[in-house]
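Researcher: Structure for this, please.
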Amino acid sequence: MSLAEDLAARNEVVLAFASAVEAELGDDTIITVGTAQRSVAEVLLDDVARAVRAQLLSSDEPVGTVAIVLTAAFAETFERAASDEILITAAQPPLKAAARAVREAAGIDIEADDGEEVDPAVVLDDSDDAIVYPILDGATPIACLVVVLGPLAGAETGGPALDLVAPGGGSEMMPSGFVLADVEMGVTAELGRCRMTVRELLSITPGAVIDLDRAAGAPVDVLVNGTLIARGEVVVIDEEFGIRISQLLTQPAQ
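Model: Predicted structure, token format:
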């Protein structure tokens, strides 16, 4: 498996990037990430406004790029978050965080330069091998992280494969309009479990404490139709509980 395929199957790069974006925005901002796609157009459609791109360098030689492509509304919000209200200033820490995550996955010395704001068309046309990670506000796409790796960073890896099969049986990335995309499924957040006898169950009264098989501070399980797909931490959003996803499981939980 190539490094690009391995990165598409995992989430370390986009999670590092998203955390840095949240830190730049402050005010307890919470953003989420989507499944890796092949092109920005699949995520943002025609709502592409601005882009900042940084080169990935190894021994001062370019081996790829990382870029953030933003909608008009989010570009304004992100720009205002910078100390000098310049978009590239806000974009630099997240892009460098993404580069560090790529370096750890590649196992070679990679760092990002300071970057530059570019015409979004340059990023859109950059490469057919681009990995595009959607950045979401709830369910709404507001930006994309685009990672393009050159030959030096394309060594074979032993990580897990992302095997999404498109209609017709090909092994390419599943398109965003896939026929099952709108099927509703039950999502459950599970704090912990315990086993009780019927006698113990009947003895529960208001104020009783039930011991769970989970340590304090341990991540919460997120299940879809009873299948564990992710883990995260409990957060409060506008006086309602939510789950900040910290790990997506690409293989069935053992």
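Researcher: Any notable elements?
Model: The chain is about 25% helix and 30% strand. The chain has two domains: 3-153, 187-248.
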